[in-house]
Known about the structure:
By secondary structure, the chain is an all-alpha fold. The protein is built from 3 helices and no strands. The protein has helices at 3-23, 26-57, 61-90.
Amino acid sequence: MSPISYSEAADxxxxxxxVAAIVVPAYGQVLLLKILLVAVLLSLAAANKLRYVPKLKxxxxxxxxxxxxxxxxxxxxxxxxxxxxxxxTTNLTPPx
Length: 96
């Protein structure tokens, strides 16, 4: 291995250590939960825009119920994001 490869390997090890320092503690796990909830929220919003809204414009009577159900789930996910954010900002401290 060349000296450049050694330095790259050391840099990779350093980066992995920093990622592990974020993910392993409770703060990192709750932060990952928040990121997952935001991804779910974006997926639901995309489903609404791409599936239910066009059906509603075409006059499909079932689309209104489906859209309403999806919006209710979206609101619950938003509430979950707010709860997780409250836990992150009041009960946990980020790793230093």
